[in-house]
Fold this sequence. Notes:
This protein is mainly β. Helix content is 7%, strand content 43%.
Amino acid sequence: xxxxxxxxxxxxxxxxxxxxxxxxxxxxxxxxxxxxxxxxxxxxxxxxxxxxxxxxxxxxxxxxxxxxxxxxxxxxxxxxxxxxxxxxxxxxxxxxxxxxxxxxxxxxxxxxxxxxxxxxxxxxxxxxxxxxxxxxxxxxxxxxxxxxxxxxxxxxxxxxxxxxxxxxxxxxxxxxxxxxxxxxxxxxxxxxxxxxxxxxxxxxxxxxxxxxxxxxxxxxxxxxxxxxxxxxxxxxxxxxxxxxxxxxxxxxxxxxxxxxxxxxxxxxxxxxxxxxxxxxxxxxxxxxxxxxxxxxxxxxxxxxxxxxxxxxxxxxxxxxxxxxxxxxxxxxxxxxxxxxxxxxxxxxxxxxxxxxx
Length: 357
């Protein structure tokens, strides 16, 4: 994963001319995703399980669905063709996806169809409204910069705590909140201790506190309501790409195989040695007592949450790439990455254990 650098302002009104005829091409945040016959072999960036259904997301607005544990896939109807970055469902029907160009999508039918709730063309106005309400010149400056750059800022993670209340986070410290299921959004950048405007890659809550994790070792904590985020001192400066909050437990993973564990709400940290230099990009709990860990090089590993004294590799994707994974039926995990969706049989027989400090 790379830090999102400030691009040169982009011109999205592209024309294609044949003779004297010129037709405008829609920008990707307004152009529906093209039909693909090979969606499960395309670049995929995220996956989740919703009951018996798997929902995977990827580049060019791709959303694919499987109701048979990944054996066959169908493409969903999506109104944008930007890269999608994160997906979350709060029940079997209601879910959200976020992606590049400030896009937020919602589904009410389990992922079969999606509607757009927000895109980057609307975000500068949200920041301007916050600047007026808070009186913070820094937010006004950011709003002006976003307006100058155009709708290019990515949203990188989404977290809803119920069907109404949720947050989206992304590049350059962008954080927006909704209290009505995404019908309207407000900016919270003035409520986050992030003076450098570091990109936020992940948001999570343990029910008592809400946490933000991002580049250059950035981590911030708020109360459960997410009203005021204060920066937390971290033992490493590695960028954090993924985070998992459990009751009384918080994990963050990131660049170079870094994996940290806190049992006191981010007041102190224990570093787990993963035995890999591959960036940690996906974390999931399993059976209430195990942490499953995904490395960008394709590794799926396991840590026992009760003992936390050893980490073992369960399997490695033959594609040697992994952006995300989810547990599926039949003793498998479904990994997604540059070569699409790959079902990975996992061995519960631990191999090559790595001691944890």
